[in-house]
């Protein structure tokens, strides 16, 4: 296996998985919060939040990447603040790739959770309230388990989006082997050099395999959840 | 109609004290009543505001104005700005559609409220309630696989196990067929007679409240048209316009006197005499509440002879009032029990009926139906 893939290719695969998993995990809680706020919230600026969350879906990825570069870059206002106070650096670093992937996948995650929240029977939450559960507990022990299938679907979409993210990543953190070179940017590099067809094809096959595996795992998890509900 | 609620004795603990004004769309709820009953029925046609009222008591709807007190505890008082959130009201709510949590087992559903009730206030006995409701064999099942009757019993158990101060039952049997209803009635009766949680039952079925209620609040179009002890309210045909005069009747408490095995009959002792009914599967001396429907009672000036009916009670005419559609409700005092007969004006004039006149009330034994035989356990009736 190690002979089939070159060390550079392995590095790109490992980095891609790391970036995608971190992006998915980091956007999970903000994603649930945003979905809940958009679906249930009645506050000023809800419309604006809705548009803002969905922007990465409609903007060209390069634009998102450039916006990240000027705000989260080393000279950008947010980037400089985070680097000085917390030592968190995004620009030309794998964490920047994760940030770009998280933002690009965020609308997909929020949409999936929101659709699932829409179908939750509010009457069950009322019933939990009359049984003495504080609204926070109602959310944790009734709402959250009921939207689990939607959360799983959203996580898969977010992960898949992160595995395939190209435009925003390459604009924001460039294409540095071993640091920010993920599977898509590595494939792009192979196609730019003579004799790179083999590497591009191998990484493409790996990419297909990872995507199928992610779908399969999510189906399996969703089925387990459904079976519990309907047993 | 008398709009003012009856004042109960001050010495008894008032279980429910409600005075509300609430506007919802084009509907206005304007209700004021008190109840000290172990099972208070909220009775009225659909759209009369019953569910809105229990939702306000349970904390699912915030009323525009007024107060709600349960066992002297203020839950809502708009004038003092008190509005206890639903999770701190300690009011068990059994919904029409059970609302069991689909992601939890029956046992987890039952114990749900217990996770949230203060430790020192946990007095509901899990084993006893499971036993009383007959749901022990369901504990490990998922709620989605249960039948309608089972779901409602689990929902009642779940509400009881949260140690509520009051149990609201919003037509919990409405979605069930007659057979399932008769499966659940005995459990509610046991709760009423043996449990220590007072109940409020929303219902639009006269047989149901006649069987279960100790107090009745009649709602019509958002307003209380009558409230008081069940036996008082059920006597008046005029409070039940939607069901017609045929449904109204008197509740009479009796005891099993003896069984006449050769005829398959049971003799009940009422205050004014005996009533003979089809064989009841009850021990001698067991209490039985029977409902004598106003339309099933014939009045006679002299003791009847050569009649097939077995049940004749002597009594004095206590009152006469206009009933529905020109009929006249004649209330009899039969040795302390009140019995109402619904007669036509013509009959009243022909017999020369007037208050104080002694008459005989003839009741055909078939007038005792399954529903009317209240506290009898479900079984061979």
TrEMBL record, chain A:
The UniProt entry, under InterPro entries, shows: MetI-like (IPR000515), MetI-like_sf (IPR035906), ModB_ABC (IPR011867)
ABC transmembrane type-1 domain boundaries: 13-218
Please name the PROSITE patterns in this protein's record: ABC_TM1
Q: Where in the cell is it found?
A: Cell inner membrane; Cell membrane
Under the heading Pfam families, the entry gives: BPD_transp_1
Question: How does the entry describe its membrane topology?
Answer: Multi-pass membrane protein
A GO term for molecular function: molybdate ion transmembrane transporter activity
Q: Which domain of life is it from?
A: Bacteria
Q: GO CC: one term?
A: plasma membrane
Q: Which UniProt keywords apply?
A: Cell inner membrane, Cell membrane, Membrane, Molybdenum, Transmembrane, Transmembrane helix, Transport
Q: For this UniProt entry, which segments traverse the membrane?
A: 20-39, 51-72, 92-113, 134-157, 199-218
Q: What's the stated role of this polypeptide?
A: Part of the binding-protein-dependent transport system for molybdenum; probably responsible for the translocation of the substrate across the membrane.
Task: Report the sequence similarity comment from the record.
Answer: Belongs to the binding-protein-dependent transport system permease family. CysTW subfamily.
What's the protein called, per UniProt?
A: Molybdenum transport system permease
From which organism does this entry originate? Microvirga guangxiensis
TrEMBL record, chain B:
The record ties this protein, via InterPro entries, to: AAA+_ATPase (IPR003593), ABC_transporter-like_ATP-bd (IPR003439), ABC_transporter-like_CS (IPR017871), Mo/tungstate-bd_C_term_dom (IPR008995), ModC_ABC_ATP-bd (IPR011868), Molybdenum_import_ModC (IPR050334), Mop_domain (IPR004606), P-loop_NTPase (IPR027417)
**UniProt keyword Cell membrane present:** yes
Report domain Mop positions: 306-372
Extract the SMART domains matched here. AAA
The alphabetical list of record keywords is: ATP-binding, Cell inner membrane, Cell membrane, Membrane, Molybdenum, Nucleotide-binding, Translocase, Transport
Gene3D superfamilies referenced in this protein's UniProt entry, alphabetically? 2.40.50.100, P-loop containing nucleotide triphosphate hydrolases
Domain ABC transporter per the UniProt entry, residue ranges: 5-246
Asked if Chaperone is a keyword of the record, the answer is: no
Listed under GO cellular component are: membrane
Write down the SUPFAM superfamilies for this protein, in alphabetical order.
Answer: MOP-like, P-loop containing nucleoside triphosphate hydrolases
Against PROSITE patterns, the record matches this protein to:
ABC_TRANSPORTER_1, ABC_TRANSPORTER_2, MOP
Q: Name one Pfam family in it.
A: TOBE
Cross-referenced PANTHER family: ABC TRANSPORTER I FAMILY MEMBER 10
* Family statement: Belongs to the ABC transporter superfamily.
Q: What is the official name of this protein in its record?
A: Molybdate transport system ATP-binding protein
Q: What organism is listed for this UniProt entry?
A: Microvirga guangxiensis
